[in-house]
Amino acid sequence: MQNQRTVADGLRVAVRASVYAVLGGAALIAIATVVSVLGPLLALDLYTPPVAAWWTVFTAVAVQGVPFLLLGTVVSAAIGAFVPERVFRRLLPRNPALAVPVAGLAGAVLPGCECASVPVAGSLMRRGVAPAAALAFLLSAPAINPVVLVATSIAFPGQPKMVLARLLASLGTAVLMGWLWARFGKEKWLRLPGRGRPSAHATGARAFLTGLQHDFLHAGGFLVLGAAAAATFNIAVPRSVLDLFTGSPWLAVPLLAVLAVVLCVCSEADAFVAASLSAFPPTARLAFMVVGPMVDLKLLALQAGTFGRSFAVRFASATWVVAVAASVLVGWWLL
């Protein structure tokens, strides 16, 4: 009887999760579609063509990004709820120098959004995983997972080199930052999560439902804000100012790298924002996609709360520099 009740509860939770996921995605698409219809009409009534252009860019970015955002949050919630942290510890070598690239590559098969990567890394450290390896996974998981790479291929059709460039630059940044921490990191900089306290994350179907609701609503809000910011940037910034930056890769790359920090776009959708910035050279847009999942304002706040402000400032600053350098090198080679 107890087993039957448990199975019934699991089925109810699974059905509710599916309904929430479908309704949530449909609601976002419906809202974006209605906005795309009413926006140009309102713009025509107000005789402001720039407003119509703003709605067009906003709708394109938001509608294209929603399906990948939904898929990414479903996968992330499933991993957080059903994959025990001890699996990571058993798969990683004991030597930190070897564990770092393995943890970096694990991000390609164990995807997660950047919002979930920080608590997952903290949980790994609590269970004995070397901080360098946990930090490499923290950076790689939201940057090179299959959902992100597929979204990038859709956002940049007919440009497989852009997908490869994102993979190589992001993985290289994650691995190099792990090695740098293993070599130069100091324990006093990192406030390790307490090993004695219980995990903050429950497991099972209910944890999956809770994680899905939180991640989708949270990341969906950042997607909408990012789409609005990208549309505003495209319309509001004078063309003469853009020409100043777009004409020089040395100015365009740091500009979009800083913009990625400020916009806080979810990694499952940032490729569509980058594709909309068509006035910028490919290497600059690559930097936007490499920096965003690793360094932005919300991640800085999450890292400061989990590992301490001293760590967050040092780690985020070094990651930004390494990510920009990796983007420039890979972009110069492939793009």
Rg value: 21 Å
The residue ranges in which pLDDT falls below 50 over 5 or more consecutive positions are: 195-201
Helix/strand class: mainly alpha
Helices, by number, come to 15
Distance between the termini: 62 Å
What's this entry about, in short?
By secondary structure, the protein is an all-alpha fold. It is 80% helix and 0% strand.
Structural summary, described in words:
- By secondary structure, the chain is an all-alpha fold.
- Helices cover 80% and strands 0% of the residues.
- The protein has 15 helices and no strands.
- The chain has helices at residues 2-45, 49-82, 85-91, 96-106, 114-126, 131-144, 146-155, 160-184, 205-236, 239-246, 249-263, 270-276, 282-291, 297-307, 309-334.
- Helix 2 runs antiparallel to helix 9 and helix 5 (114-126) runs parallel beside helix 14.
- The radius of gyration is 21 Å and the shape is globular.
- Mean pLDDT is 77; it is low at 195-201.
Task: Please describe the topology of this protein.
Blueprint: H1 2-45, H2 49-82, H3 85-91, H4 96-106, H5 114-126, H6 131-144, H7 146-155, H8 160-184, H9 205-236, H10 239-246, H11 249-263, H12 270-276, H13 282-291, H14 297-307, H15 309-334
Helix pairs in contact: 1-2, 1-9, 2-7, 2-9, 2-12, 4-6, 4-8, 5-6, 5-14, 6-8, 7-8, 7-12, 8-13, 8-15, 11-13, 12-13, 13-15, 14-15
